[in-house]
């Protein structure tokens, strides 16, 4: 078994690490304090070819594999979680439905500019009354002359209200089957479409530099060629890209745990009490040991899920496990790092306080950890011959 990253991936990871050290880390605290979305950083990521990592080269992407994507996430997320989470939403749920189900014209029209980094993408699923219950959405799309009229509200949507937002991919209910089940479809709604408005930027516990808003659709008309994939298959289309999204959130957790450990070690070796560095005290040293051990365990769970995805093998259960474990490791690492910092960790001027505030959402986003446990348990108790594809 070879646990080394390919040479090309290591080189890219080092390049991103250097970029983050220059362009992100020195400014992340100010962006967070001012709740400022750093547009220029995403433009530069586009220039580096990183805004379409999972998009094939024929649509102006990098055509990278999932393992390489995770390696890049490790560096971006260790520098700033707001930038990394915005990049992640753009790179996965905002672009992958277009890639998987869009027509050739839709890919050239909307996917390619996103992959080039000329714009940033958003995906509208969550609603005020529907989060984990994705099937419970109430936003509707009804047929109109030459297109569809969309009505409803989306909540907690990332990247929709920035000055480089191109549009949002929206999941809506289009009707019901004979047995009463809902039909769903996915639509692309460009920014500035009449009837589509972005609410104010939400003030969050963490991820302060990430743009998060409520979206309102009031008789918002989109032409027929804005329908992505087949009408009636929208929910299935969303679920088909969810597993890769779970890997990416797991990678976010991995990156946060990595940053928390580095900050804890730095403080513990520099800060002295009773004439000795904190790291000389067994209580502190054991915290660092536990953080490092859990970080390594999380790392290989995340990379294994990514490795399985790249080989076309079932990886749904492994993705859920990685997301569950890495997000909880991130929260434990951030908490222990604040404890090691003491009072310095509790003031907002400290770098660790920002990561501590960012950590909790990792247990909530892209499927709560309660949902992940349901997914894992269902796979483990289902006989292999009956296990659903991608969940065994």
From TrEMBL:
Domain Acyl-CoA dehydrogenase/oxidase N-terminal positions: 7-118
Pfam families with a match to the protein in the record: Acyl-CoA_dh_1, Acyl-CoA_dh_M, Acyl-CoA_dh_N
Residues covered by the Acyl-CoA oxidase/dehydrogenase middle domain: 122-220
PROSITE patterns per the UniProt record, alphabetical: ACYL_COA_DH_1 (PS00072), ACYL_COA_DH_2 (PS00073)
Domain Acyl-CoA dehydrogenase/oxidase C-terminal intervals: 232-380
Co-factor(s): FAD
Entry protein name: Acyl-CoA dehydrogenase
Source organism of this protein record: Streptomyces griseoruber
